[in-house]
Structure formats: C-alpha cells, structure tokens
Amino acid sequence: MKIRKGIAIIFGGILSIGAMLTIGYFTPTKWGDRATVDCQYKVCVAMFGIHTNIIVPIQNDVFDWRNYLALNLTNQQYIGFGLGERTWYMNPPTRLEDILSQGIRALFFPNPSVLRMHKHERFPEHYEIECVGVGKLDYLALMQFIKSSFQRSQQGDKIQIVYNPNSGKAFYEATGSYSLVRNSNHWTAEGLNIANVNTPLWIRFSTAIMHHLEGTC
To answer: Least crowded by CB within 10 Å, which of 106, 114, 148, 203?
Structure first.
C-alpha cells in the first residue's frame, strides 16, 4: 500500500507540474485585445530551434544602430540580437557527448553570456519570424534594453569578442549570466515586455513566445 501511495503521489506531482507548465505556456502576460499599432516602428522575433532573436531595422527616424555599433552597416536593412551561452553560441558542439555535457552545463550552472549581433541585407523572410508594430516610446525602450545588454569595459566601451564580416555576425560580452532561469528566450521576452508586446507566463521555450506573437507587419 505504501508503495502504491508513493507512486500515486509522484505521478500526481508530475501531472500537476505538467498542468502548470501547460497553463503557463498558453497564458499571456497581458489580457485583452492589444491596441492596433501601425508598422512604422517594427519589431520582429525569429525562432532558431530552441532559441529566439529580436530583429529590428538598422535605422528609422528615432534610432540608428550605425551610430552605436562600430561596424559597416551601410548595405544592411535589418539587424538581429540574441543572448546565448558563450561556449555553445560561439562554437556549437557537434559530438553527442559534447552536446550533452555542454548542454547540462549551460542549463543548470551559471555561465558567461554573449550577445550575438547578425546583420541582414534584407528582411530575413526565410526564418520562422513574426513582426509587430509598437509605439515610438515602446520602440525606444526596447532599443535601450538591447543597448544595456552589452557588457562594458572599465572605459565604458562595448567588449567585442569576435566579428566575422563574411557571415555578418559579431559576438559581444553580455551582462548577466546564462542558465536555465535566464536563457535566450527569457532575454527576448524581457525585451518584448518592455516594448509592451505580449508574451507567455512561461517563457522557457521559443515556441511559447512565438505562439503569443500575433504578426501584424
């Protein structure tokens, strides 16, 4: 009897956790219909497997990334940003044993984080991507959030780790650490919340974030 009771308690606990996560997956942080906003200030989210990136125009009438990043951005229209674990993001493992060991380390232990920048010559429509329009002040708040994610040197400079002009990608040291409780999707959701874009209560998975984005642009 005791064994059966113990199994029932464990099984019930698993079901309860699963139910809570499912509710968090489908429950939005903001209720009610979102006010319609035109696409003058467009914010996009792209999903890359389990990760998400925020993609915005290189420049518009309120913000210009060419004035902030010391890179050649004259031929590009869009720029993407995403948070990642430094070792995994910059040198993705290919062997199964490395994937398992690095994956466990990246998720369950605090690790150095990086901010990946990826410039695009045109809108990256080949990605799984959703775009929404936000207000001017919300857009500027999101730009400030991304800027504040760059780790700074004692001299106040952004710390670039590597830049590959052929791929259009650069990696910078990022603020904070990377772990199960602060991964790429947490970072994306935090930025979207600042811009008053709806996100799920449980933001662990990229699919949850994409589920709540109602593309309008």
So the answer is: 148
Residues in the chain: 217
**Cα→Cα distances 190→24, 52, 71, 177, 193, Å:** 16, 12, 26, 15, 5
Reference 54, options 41, 63, 45, 65; nearest CA is 45
pTM for this model (two decimals):
0.81
pLDDT digits (tens, 9 = 90+) for 64-90: 999 999 888 888 899 999 998 887 777
Asked whether the beta carbons of 197 and 132 are under 8 A apart, the reply is: yes
Instruction: Tell me which H or E stretch contains 149.
Output: none
Residue type, 32: G
H/E segment holding residue 187:
helix 184-194
Burial bucket for residue 116 (CB in 10 Å: 0-12, 13-18, 19+): buried
Q: Is 151 or 105 the better-scoring residue by pLDDT?
A: 151
Calculate the alpha carbon distances from 192 to 75, 126, 142, 157, 164 in Å.
27, 22, 7, 26, 28
